[in-house]
Amino acid sequence: MGEIIRFISKSERERARLIREARANYERIFPSADPADAQGAADEGSGSEASSKP
Length: 54
What we know:
The protein is built from two helices and no strands. It has helices at 10-29, 35-44. The longest helix has 20 residues, at 10-29. The mean pLDDT is 80.
């Protein structure tokens, strides 16, 4: 019962989707040398805010 549900606006969801898509395109063009780094980037992307990492 005491769960808090955070409202995420449509524009914020779209922004997060576009950032994920851009990161995937960047990774496809410039693959990282370290596979563990790619896993870390995937974990970072699970939040709703964007980082400055390309």
